[in-house]
Every structure is written in C-alpha cells, then in structure tokens.
Amino acid sequence: MSEGASTRRPGGMDAGIPKPHDLPATLGVSTPRPEASRAVGTGAAGLGLVAALVLCSGACGLIYQTAWLRELRLVFGISTPATAATLAIFMAGLGVGSLWLGARVDRVTNPLFFYGVLELGIAASAALSPALLALVRIAYFALGGQASLGLVGSTLVRLALAACVIGVPAILMGGTLPAVARAVTAAGDQGRRRLARVYAINTLGAVGGVVLATFVLIERLGAHLTVWLAAAVNLGAGLAAVALASGPSMPAAHLRLVPSPPAAAATPQVGPRGVYAASALVGFVFFLMEMVWYRMLTPLLGGTTYTFGVILAMALLGIGLGSALYALRSGSGAPTRAAFAATCGLEALALAFPYALGDRLAVLAMMLRPLGLMGFGGGVLAWSVIAGIVVLPAALVAGFQFPLLVRLLGEGRTDIGSHTGRAYAWNTAGAIAGSLAGGFGLLPWLTAPGVWYLATWLLAALSVWTVVASARSQRSGVLRAIAVLATLGAILLVVVAQGPTAFWRHGGIGAGRATTLTEMKTPNDLRGLVQELRNRVGWQAEGRESSIAAFDDDGLALIVGGKSDGNVIADAGTQVMCGMVGALLHPQPQRALVIGLGTGSTSGWLGRVPSIERVDTIELEPAVVEFARRCAVANQDVTRNPKQHIVIGDGREFMQTTRDRYDLIVSEPSNPYRAGVASMFTREFYTSAERRLKPGGMFLQWVQTYEADFETIRIVYATLCSVFPNVETWSTLEGDLLLVGSREPVVTDVGALRQRIAQEPFRSALEHAWRVRDAEGVLAHYMGDRDFGLTLASICSPIVNTLDRTTLE
C-alpha cells in the first residue's frame, strides 16, 4: 500500500520513516455507540485548528524519529543489525498502537478528545526519552555490546533497550491517525476523503519535520534540545485538541471538510483479508525501495546526512501529495479493486522509469554538480532534482493507495478507527519484513539494482492479480485497462533496459571525484568516460552496509558507496604509516587496535612488527574483508596472519564496550562529512579511546585535509585536545595528517629510532610508503608538537564536536 512506505526510514539507513502522527496512547472515555459520537465539536475555525494540530503532529513525529534513530545509533552502532533493531521497535510500536488504539477509537464518544490525550502522552514520554537514553547507554556498555554478547544476543538486547526508550511514544503515535480520522470523518463521507486529507496534512507536516531536524534543529540545538522542543509542541497540540473537543458542539454542516452525501450502508468492495494482505505487500515493497533509494542515490548525491534527509523528505512529500490527490479526486463513486490495481501498475511504472533511465540519471547528476558552486542551497537543489525523479513519482502513487485501501474496507465513519488502524498495522508489518529481508538477505544477494528490479515485478504481479480478481465486475473497465497498460509498460522497461551500471554506482559523482562535463568536448568523450569507468571495475560486491568495488588501475582502489577510500599504492604513505608511526614512537608496543580495515595495509604492517602480539581490526562492512584478501601482496597478507583478529562491527561501539587495553589505537574513518562518520571524531569517542590505552599508549587519528575547510580541521584539533593533554602532528601524504594523542609528551630517542628503522618491517615500510631510509627522512614528516595543536584549536572560540552536536557532520 502506500503507508508502509511512509512509515519507515531507511536506511536506512540509515534512515527515514514517514509515520502518520505523533501518537499518544492513553485513554479516553469509551462508550458503546459510535454512531452517537460527534464528528468534531467545532465549526470551520475548529476544523482549521484540527488541521494545524495534525500538521504539527506530523512534524514532531519526524523530528522524534530523526533524533531517536540518530541517538540510538550512537549507542548501538551504525551497523545494519543495530539499525534494524531500532527501526523494528519503532515500526512495531506504530503498528501495535494503530491496531490496538484504532479499535478503541471506535468505542469512544469524543475521538478528538482521545486524540488530544494521545498527544499529551506522546509529549510526556518523548520528554523522558533523553534521560532513558542515558540509562540505556550505561546498560548496553556495561553488558559489553556485540563483542561480548554476539550478534544474536546483542540484537535481542538492542530490541529490549530500544523498546524502553521509544516503545511507549511509538505506540501512542500509532493511535493518532485512527483517532483524528474518526474525529473529522462524517457518516456521509463514502469515499473517506477526509481521512485522506488528514493523512496528507500529517505527512506534509512530516516533510517539514525532517527538513527542520536535518538542516536546522539538531545542528544548532543538539538532539536533546530538539526532542524537548518537539515535546513542547506536542504538549501544546494536545492541550489545544482537548480544549477544542471540550468546547460546545456545532451543527454537522459546519464540520465538513468535503461535501458529504447522505449516509449509506457500508458496502466493502473486497474482503478484509485481501485488503490487509495487499497493505502488507505494498508496505514490504515500499520499504525495500526506501533501502534501495538510499543505497543507489548515495553515489550520485554524496552520502551525507543532508542528502539522506532530502531523500526522506522527497518520499514523504510524494506520499502527502498522493493522499491529497485522493482527497481532491472528483466524482462520488466508490473506489474499486480495479482502482487499486491501477495504482499498483502505475507505481510499478514509476519505479521502472528511473531504472530504465539508468546511467542517464548519473549524467544528469554530473550536469547539476555545478549548482553547488552557488552555495549550499544550490547543492540541495541539485539533490532534490535527482531524488525527485527517482523517488517522488512512486511515493505519490503510494500516498494515493493508503486511503484507497482503507476505503475498500468500508465507508463513512463506521469502524473507520479500526479499519485505519488495521490497514496501517498490516502495512507496518510488511515494512518490518521488508527491512529485515532487504538488509539481511535481498540486498547482498540480489544487489540494489536487483532488488529494484524485484520490487517492480512484485507490484506488477499484485496489479495483475487484482485485475484478475476484479474481472467479474462490470464496472471500472477503464481502470483495469490503465492497470494492464501500466503494468506492461513497467515490465517492458525493466526487461529491456540495462539499468544502472558501474558508472552510476562507483563513478564518484556525488563525492565530486568524477570528471566534470565541462571537460567533455563531444558526446563521444562522454561515452568514452562512461565505458572507461565501467572497464576499471575489476571486482564489485553488494555489501551488507554499502556497495563495494575494486578499481583495477594504478593499484587496487577501494570504492565504498561511490567514493574512493584507499589505494594500496597511491595511499600507502598514509595507510601503511598510520600504524607504523605509532610502532616507531612507542618503545614496546604489544597490542594494537585499528578502526577500519580498508585495504588492510595499516593492520597488516602492524602485524609484522616483532613486538606486536595481537592486532584487533574492526570493520563495519564484511565485503571489505574480501577486498583486503585481494590486496594480500601489499598488506602483508593481513587476513592470514595469526596475530590478526578481524571483527565485523561498529568501531565506535566496540571502543565503548570493549574491556581490552591497547598500546596503540589507530582510527581511520572516512571523511567526516559522510553520514555517521563524524561520530568517530567526537569528544566521547576520544574519551573512550583514552580509557582503552595502556600507560604510555598512543591514539593515532587520520585526518583528511582535502575536501575540508580550515574550520573542520580546527574543530578536529579542538576536540582531540580536549581529551588528550599531548597532541602531536605528522604529515603522511600531501592532504593527509596523522594526529598522535597521548597522556604524556612523546619522547623521541633518535638513536633508538635509527636502530628500529634499520630493522624489518620498518625498513621496508619506510622505503615502500615514504621512500626514506633514515631517521632524518622520518622526522621530516613531523609537523608540530603540543603547542602547535593547541594554537590551532584555540583560534577563535573553540568548538568541540560532541555526540549531541556533531558539528563536523
């Protein structure tokens, strides 16, 4: 259906959820005869206020979602299992709330009052969430995280702890759509267009919520203040709804949002089981596509927090506009199964069209890149155009589907609360199944383009099945024809088209690494560029977390989400020496921890140091291990060294939960502007690293100065210096810095340094990476001592990057 799409996020992704309203759960007064209850105890002004409340409710819901998912990922990590656990609890809460509270709404005399109580409950439970998050963080870290609990155990713990934080408000949110739908729907509203209008208003509010949270609130206020601000808005909405519901009743003629013909007996067009199954399937497909959109658009848009926000906002915008279109449709005829078949066919066609465009969309993204020269607004405009082409059409059809499915269950006010709640619950169940199937099986197995292809076929099959099921009806011949033609068009497009290739997936367009169109003199130049890039891919894999590729030119290069994250030859100066500098400076290193496997060079060369007994390497993406195997010649065969222990997981979570202590800790994340990476440059992360060091231990941070302004570098220095009393600076390559943090100043014995340089593997590493053979050559890479770092950090008023306010992101 349509809502499943909206109720989750991706990502994802990770990601975005569209839910319908902030829901409170509590109680209202229940009485037996729903028909005796009023539609809304106000006139036109009151209905305008209800619309405003619903708009605010949708905005707050997405603000909560964005903040909660972000905060829980900072506790559980950003891996797919961790994100899936959080999303599953959130979506399950919405589904349970819509099912339980939706049925309850039909038994209350004043559904608007009930809605107001739900909003008050959301405000109270959301306001408590930052305190609960602090307790959850303590509990999870005390249990040891995934490293101690294992994948299954840690997933169960994450589910339980996430439920403690967001379970109650999510359940309450699930009840708000059924409550407000019953409050505004009149008995004569056969098409249930008021429900569609409310859903549209709520979802458009959600668009505002995700834009505010992503682009303004969290950056300026931090996650905690953002949640409390949303709770205050919820509180006001709840009080306003209660006051409005408690006011004097006005004639029903003043309450109408749309013209209402006389009430008629409900005549469901199809059995409820069929509607619920359809709702679950469209929710499954839409959530699969949300995951695909995040994965596929990352190489084109850049993979930042802002681009993910644009994708989610575009999905919600489409859902809101689609629902509004249903509410504004002309004619009073009741929707039929053929109408639903038509929406499935059109949605399949909307998915197939951008798939068929394939690399043409990548070329368009290249053409729009110069808009970024206009400033941040120009970049957002470019992202919105691409996301609009890929996401908006399918989301618009999905938004039309949800009220249509609810209408197929009945008409008017009769059982509208339970109908809405059950349809939404089944949609949410399908979405949860889609998230688990996509993240743990379908994406790695079929690849993102393969899942895109599958989703189109699933919708096409649902359209055909519905057309066949409605064949006996003499009505809706035109709609059946539309369904058939749209379905055939979708199938033809995905079967004939090549779809996205390596040029889209690994071309580095979003990261600004691709050749610009201004360098293309003729169309043949562009064709040559596309073909050349396709030929450079020597190996590729769809990982659990990202798309991975190996470029086979000038040394193997690791491509993650369309961005190069290391070349075994060109980047050896950094990737080999990040660890070896620490091994040279430390008198007797025995245990080392490396965050990020990458090409394997840092871990591999450290593992060859005679004094090193064990190297723990934490890598988020399992597919990167296979890439490292392919680089065995350059990385000292890291995957086969018995000293090496490669752990698949989130590096920050491991750092916060492990009880081990290390002589050297090397952190090599990607650029901090990438979504989620800035958490590896926070004061909390550095504090955890400092606590995991043995006496005399060193923390080594790789910092990319390319694609970063001076303010970014200054914030990194200010944050690291706020934890480590001594921070020294080395240059590993042009554009790469290595910051060495320690509790005490590092004392370099030049004589001992000369002796160590003459030994293996230091001699080979220095010749290979830096082309030097003596102590003078090594020290030529030394840039500054503690005072150098403090001077940079103190320029202007110091800004420290924290988990609550990740300024670097």
Give the arrangement of secondary structure elements:
Layout: H1 3-6, E1 11-14, H2 44-76, H3 80-105, H4 111-143, H5 145-184, H6 193-221, H7 223-246, H8 272-301, H9 305-328, H10 337-357, H11 359-368, H12 376-409, H13 416-446, H14 448-469, H15 477-496, H16 502-506, H17 523-536, E2 537-542, E3 547-552, E4 556-560, E5 563-567, H18 572-575, H19 577-585, E6 591-595, H20 601-606, E7 614-619, H21 622-630, E8 644-648, H22 651-657, E9 662-667, H23 683-691, E10 693-704, H24 710-721, E11 726-733, E12 736-742, H25 750-757, H26 762-769, H27 775-779, E13 782-784, H28 786-794
Parallel strand pairs: 6-7, 6-9, 7-8, 9-10
Antiparallel strand pairs: 2-3, 3-4, 4-5, 10-12, 11-12, 11-13
Helix pairs in contact: 2-3, 2-4, 2-5, 2-6, 2-7, 3-5, 3-13, 4-5, 4-7, 5-6, 5-13, 5-22, 6-7, 6-9, 6-12, 8-9, 8-12, 8-13, 8-14, 9-12, 10-12, 10-14, 10-15, 11-12, 12-13, 13-14, 14-15, 24-28
Q: What do you see in this structure?
A:
- With 809 residues, the protein is of the alpha/beta class.
- It contains 28 helices and 13 strands.
- Strands 8-7-6-9-10-12-11-13 form an 8-stranded mixed β-sheet, with helices on both faces. Strands 2-3-4-5 form a 4-stranded antiparallel β-sheet.
- α8 packs antiparallel against α12 and α8 runs antiparallel to α14.
- 61% of the residues are buried.
- The N terminus is likely disordered.
Oligomer: single chain
Tell me the major beta sheet. Answer: 8 strands, mixed
Give the helix level as a range of percent: 55-70%
Provide the spatial order of strands within the biggest beta sheet.
Answer: 8-7-6-9-10-12-11-13
Cα-atom radius of gyration? 28 Å
Strand fraction: 5-15%
Task: Work out the number of β strands.
Answer: 13
Mean pLDDT over all positions: 87
Q: Please give the count of helices.
A: 28
The class by helix and strand makeup works out as alpha/beta
Shape: globular
User: Low-confidence parts lasting 5 or more residues at pLDDT below 50?
Assistant: 1-45, 250-267
End-to-end span in angstroms?
34 Å
